[in-house]
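Take a protein:
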Amino acid sequence: MQFKLRFAALALLLAACSSKADTSQTDTGEGSAADATVDTSDLSDGTIDDVLDGSAAPAPPCQPILGTDCLAPWPSAYWEAASLGTRTGWRIDLPDEVMPADNRGNRISATDWNRRDGFSPNTPIVVLPGVALDAALLPNESRPALTFTTDLPILLADAATGAFIPYFAELDDNATPGNAPALIIRPWTPLREQQRIVVGLTTTLRSTAGESLRTTPAMAALLRNEPTGDPRIDGHLADWQADLTTLTALGIPRTNLVAAWHFDTASQTWTEGPGIVMREAFRAFVGDGTPPFTITQVELAEETAALFPALPTPATDARVVYKAMHPEVALRIRGTFTAPLFLTSADAAGTLNWNDATGTLDQNGTVERPFLLLVPPSALAATTPPHTLIYGHGLLRSACDEGCVEPGAAELMPHLTALLGTVTVATDWWGLSQPDLPVALSAGANLALLPRITDKLAAGAMMPFLAGRIARLGIPQHPWFARSDGRAFADTTTPPRFYGNSLGGIMGTTMVALHPEIERAVLNVPGGGWSMLLNRSSNFAAFLTLINRNYPDRAQQQLIFAMSQSHWDLSDPLTFADRLITEPLAGAPANRRALWSVSLGDAQVPTLSAGYLARVAGQPLLAPVSEPWPLVATTSTLPFDGSAFVQWDSLRGNWPAGNGLRSPDNGAHYATRWMPAFQQMVYRFLLGDGLIEPRYCLAADTDGALPCTLTQTIPDTFSEEPAAPELPPPRVD
């Protein structure tokens, strides 16, 4: 598969980077992928060694509640300051001097965090205890703490209601041997916006030597209801002492508490607000029409060109190319379109264009982005106008990677397009597409550059909306594509459908939530919570090589990953999944349906992250299930009419609990999309009556107990593609 080849090439690039490259010039994000692996050297650590009179600089503030790290536990109200100008009444207040640094002392700037009015609702909680903890005492992902009991080693509670918050905890599997692993606490369901969370560690939590953690002098003072001597705590002493009241009200005596702290999550203004601002700008930009677009290439067989008498010939216009086409593609159109730009620049270095004077996200002109449109033979032969489909590509691929196929190749985009008979369009997921690979490598070498990825994901989330308008309204009305037989090029009245794989299922969830028109969407092998995915995905291995080189402290890595979730939030599906069905945005279709399809044992997008997505989306899991998801409703009413999650088991194995890399890849990520039964389901859901029947494969089921326990060959060539499945009833509009 091309995806595997791309990561093999990436591994070669990493191997080619010598230690000398680490000290070379700062990467601008505009060079080759090899150039992008060098570390940046232009980021000073923001500290000064001496003040003007020659005396030592004052020591930075250091959190005195727990552990051996100044910044941890993360997140904590220790790094908050009161603010009358925010929705929460707080703002993040991180000095640059305490921010994580690479192995040359270059610190990540605190600026991006200090804009926010709270911490990420999707954050993990990271504690660096300084001692090795006994993992057997922790409620892990296989047996999370769903209800309160007095013997829990960790407590999470809502400060406003006193309610216990379910969670699981894990020790970092990636810790350097001999060093104490970070303790990572993950709320079982993402937190709400604008919520105060209280965290407590009890004497049940013990080291591998059987000892409880030591209470620090500051924490001991709080337990005695006394000031700590630290102005960051004592300035809001009542809030910190209220943490103890919240925990004791659950039923834990103070004598059983080792540490306690709280933090405030950001408001919706800072989580989904930027995405909604850009959504409305994109809607206003096109109104009821299309964005400006340019056709750069048209590819088709000469005999197909007879259908389009106004289309220039290759002799009169070099953009038109006659060629032998892939059997599943009759016409391929490439081009660019104009879109609103909300980045500081359109190049690799661009990040979101914040106006700190006004606290707004401002548009900065426009940008040109690519689109690719496929028309299969089945769409050209259709007697009724074909639907339009927006397609979402996978991680570090592109629309052309998956749609610019030559005869003999196997790719799902043309295969599914031919099966559905749709006019299919795609654009690149800005930030994590193939052209962004140098930027991704730069961010791996210097985590301060991560917003060059996350901000582009946010700024590009609505690009498929514009590409869909081109497919549904722009190309069908273009004079080149008026058909000689008078048939319509595409259905211009029915809203587009969406199908996405992998990154297309992840970012597709966010995009569909923001999209004002899509009524039906299939989101295949999806997940949510980017900071949780980083260590758990087999795709992360190559980037972890760079990170390990530049940030060798593994405990510090976990702290940085947790902090990064504030960046990912602006496009993370955990931020937007509830906006698809349960709380749709203004102007969203009233009859929208979404089908999330999960491949069990997925090494690239772990099933754990799909369960998180289901808990946020608030949609049921269809039974029978192979892997129960606590706190997700299950329904056995089939066929199902509505939105749902479906599990598929390709018999490619599963992974043990923990945050270790899933390597090598087991193929589960790719297998389901090529199952004929899966394709039947997609057809019926997108173009048929919309009912979901996960037992299409019952006749060939290997044991009759699991939902579609089928092995499936992943084709490398067109001749290996499975035969077209028997399709369900025709569409009902």
